[in-house]
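Re-run with default settings, no changes from the original entry. Doing this only to confirm the output is reproducible before filing.
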Amino acid sequence: MGKLGIIAGQGHLPRLVARDSGRDCIFVVLEGVKTDIPVGVPVIDATFERLGEMFSAMKTAGVKQVVFCGGMARPDLDPARLNAFTVEAMPELMAGFAQGDDFLLRVIIELFEKQGFSIIGAHELVVDLTLASGCYSDKSPSESELIDARRGMEILNVISPLDLGQGCVVASGLCLGIETLQGTDSLLDFVSKTAPHLRRSAGVFVKAAKTDQDLRIDMPTIGPETVVSVQRAGLAGIIVSANKVMIVEREATVDAINAAGLFLVAQ
């Protein structure tokens, strides 16, 4: 089976996968990315400009499968540092950088697969990372909140082909905001500043995967920090698409939901 290469980004997910996957892991950490490296886990330090060296180091280390974990911003490439491999890959990469995240990630997946690595999703390695359909909180949503959730899912389905984001907020049928490049926290901060007279109800945060999204590499994620932001935005709860959104630190997330008097539903 070989080693599992964890392309490690920000957040708790890389450490969680290393701890709970039961695999012999090695962290691959790109320059400028701050990640929480578990004690005793070997590390390959890499730069985006020198992908050839990264791939060679991974092969030498015995990596066969790769999992992408955690948040990662688009890098600022320094042309002076590019090695021959990355120069050759630049036309494909630049085409990816010119479009949305989903397209760029597909380009990156293809680069890894051409090097003989197989890509596996974090949800395939760790049990209970996603939620089956149901309510996971002490509080249940009202019928009007479920209607808002359906409206939110409709909005996300419509914008999905534009490759914008994976979340939105709806209150009494009105969209208070959609997630864009800045991410979930920025969306919820924006919503928190909505004038009271524009909000007929508390509203719900809806998180869902894009249509035909490759869930191996960019599955939507929520966690305890999301709950804090949802509460700060004055929302009633969170609705996620069943089996297609990862819940990092599941127990802590549900505890935070209940402590805040919110609801968490997968549908």
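The two ends are 35 Å apart (CA to CA). The mean pLDDT is 91.
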